[in-house]
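Need residues for this backbone.
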């Protein structure tokens, strides 16, 4: 068993489902790095339950290459796993466990490579950035960015190790998470016309989202590098009502906008808000307190690195690949690029086809290819 897979076995055993503590994993990574002589910054949240880790190997007076990964994983509840999702299981050169592909496989390879890098005389530094709660909107990394913006030297390049099959991804969509609160007027259900149904209002609002989605699909901007080449809207959570015999006075619709660069998500959101006012108007004539308010819960920017950027050719030289792609899922890469101005690509082992599913896995060959990519990076940093 390779060292990277041995490390992966430890990482998978830590239940770091998003919104739960990740300190055991961070302590493991810190201990692993410090044993190799690498000093680490552990940046905890206010409650002290979760933390980012940032470490630099090599000279501290110049920019280096940053390898970024998130330590949290998505939940396993309701999924039919054939083995314990938090115990690494090998079958037919596949390693099963929650987070193997997304993205503890990459982190395992990085931690293994770091112990080798610590023994080298690097001329260009290696930065390691591990974050928490990426799966719920790149929450944790923002605390790290607040610290990094105050440092003298920003990284020269950033590689986010999300699963791309080690293809070089130059972009991903931006995202806005929002909540529409639909306010109605309660009444006894036998006297339905004397009230105003908030769930019905929510349904009208969802139709607005569907209409806008259809418009974007037919007439919106296009980027053929994405599997879905246009901006998408999606209502993911609907809640409302307390009893069947009460006309509900409140309902919530949680929705998202995932935008390509050619569309302005804030402009789309403003258009949705304008439609919300229109569909609320008839109810307001009878019940002034009714209506729809929309609040942004979270957002992060997209990533759109030019395909001829230096970082693209650099990472291609590490992987041996010739083509580029874009990924529909979000990463912290857009934030690194926006907040720090660091040229960024997404490139890591495994496939998101396995991510977020029962029996998530990464293959032995993908781990070996990632180790080889990082070995090539180490040669560059030592040159």
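Answer:
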């Amino acid at each position: 068993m390779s060292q990277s897979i041995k490390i992966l076995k430890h990482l998978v055993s830590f239940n770091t489902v998003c919104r739960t503590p990740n300190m055991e994993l961070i302590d493991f990574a810190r201990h692993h790095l410090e044993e190799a002589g690498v000093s680490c910054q552990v940046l905890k949240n206010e409650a002290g339950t979760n933390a980012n880790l940032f470490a630099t190997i090599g000279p501290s007076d110049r920019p280096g290459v940053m390898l970024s990964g998130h330590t949290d994983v998505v939940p396993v509840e309701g999924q039919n796993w054939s083995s314990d999702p938090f115990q690494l299981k090998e079958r037919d050169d596949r390693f099963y466990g929650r987070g193997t592909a997304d993205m503890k496989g990459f982190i395992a390879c990085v931690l293994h490579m770091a112990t080798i890098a610590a023994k080298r005389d690097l001329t260009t530094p290696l930065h390691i950035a591990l974050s928490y709660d990426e799966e719920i909107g790149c929450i944790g990394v923002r605390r790290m960015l607040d610290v990094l913006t105050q440092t003298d030297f920003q990284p020269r390049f950033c590689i986010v190790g999300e699963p791309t099959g080690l293809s070089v991804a130059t972009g991903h969509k931006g995202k806005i998470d929002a909540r529409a609160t639909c306010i109605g007027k309660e009444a006894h259900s036998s006297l339905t016309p004397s009230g105003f149904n908030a769930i019905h209002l929510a349904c009208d609002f969802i139709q607005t989202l569907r209409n806008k989605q259809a418009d974007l699909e037919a007439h919106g901007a296009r980027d053929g590098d994405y599997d879905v080449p246009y901006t998408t809207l999606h209502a993911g959570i609907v809640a409302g009502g307390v009893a069947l015999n009460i006309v509900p006075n409140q309902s919530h619709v949680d929705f998202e906008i995932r935008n390509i660069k050619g569309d302005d998500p804030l402009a789309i959101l403003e258009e949705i808000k304008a439609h919300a006012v229109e569909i609320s108007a008839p109810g307001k004539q009878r019940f002034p307190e009714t209506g729809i308010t929309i609040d942004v819960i979270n957002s992060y920017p997209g990533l759109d690195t030019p395909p001829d950027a230096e970082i693209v050719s650099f990472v291609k030289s590490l992987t041996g690949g010739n083509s580029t792609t874009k990924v529909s899922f979000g990463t912290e890469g857009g934030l690194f690029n926006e907040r720090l101005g660091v040229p960024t690509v997404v490139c890591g082992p495994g496939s998101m086809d396995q991510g977020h599913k029962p029996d998530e896995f990464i293959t032995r060959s993908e781990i070996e290819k990632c180790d080889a990519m990082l070995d090539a990076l180490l040669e560059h940093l030592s040159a």
